From TrEMBL:
Swiss-Prot/TrEMBL keywords: Cell membrane, Membrane, Transmembrane, Transmembrane helix
The protein's name in its UniProt record: SURF1-like protein
Residues in the signal sequence: none
PANTHER family (alphabetical): SURFEIT LOCUS PROTEIN, SURFEIT LOCUS PROTEIN 1
Organism: Streptomyces yunnanensis
Transmembrane segments: 12-32, 174-191, 225-245
Compositionally biased tracts (Low complexity): 274-288
Membrane-related topology note: Multi-pass membrane protein
PROSITE patterns membership: SURF1
Amino acid sequence: MYRFLLTPRWWGINVFAVLAIPFCIFMGSWQLSRFDARVASHHQQENRTADAKAAAPRPLQSLLPVDQVTSGRQASARGRFDATHQLLVPDRTLQGKNGDQQGFYVLTLLRTDGGKALPVVRGWLPGDANATADTAKVPAPPIGEVTVVGALQASENEGTAGVRAGGGLPKGQLGMISAASLVNIVPYGVYDAWITLTDPPAPLRAVPPAAVEGTGLDMKAFQNLGYTGEWFVFAGFVLFMWFRLVRREAEAAKDAALGILPEGPEGPEGPEGPEGAVGPVGAAAEEGATGEGATGTEVRAGR
């Protein structure tokens, strides 16, 4: 009954099923492993953040370049604030008691002894960076040589939340905190990193360190989980269709062996019905032919 599985047509179907099902299972397992890795990375980052808050600050140079391990660590740097290049970073949201609040960062460059400047986010203020009443609340940076301590952060990019990479901002504002954005604003080199102060001066509020990119449970993580389900569904669909085709072919072969042919549009045996059967029209024609023959015989006999 199942000899049809060895035909060339079914060889192609079988090979496709044998290759497609393991491939779908492999891809689904790989997507699931990516989701598990993101979950594990998220937990590790949370643990690092908790450890970083309790750990003693380390010199800036010992934590560069910023990576998944050093991001969020407490860093210390010594130098002088450049008050002439203090910048506001607009449209930044901070979690408050009543939900998210819109405001802006206050960023000041710290000229270190190494010659380069370190972008320091001294804090966050609610309001509009274009409103004079709100910007008037920004405190002046300390004068003289100071030591700052804060959470180390990697340079922002176009995918970072709140970034305005399109430009068009007024003078004194910055859309993205990165060395690439600052190099055209200040006449000196800038570190490819920045820190957010742990204890900012009033009325500024501390900006919490952001999670390292690619370590949080963001939309990409749940996309991996969705792709996992899709690949496993594809594997099940291929298996289901293979069994369905085999069953249909086996039933057709069984019917053919029993002499049961599939019905056509005009009956099981074509337009004339079963072989040897005579319809009403055929019977009438046959009867007329017989009568005509009998009459002819009688006339000849009379002559």
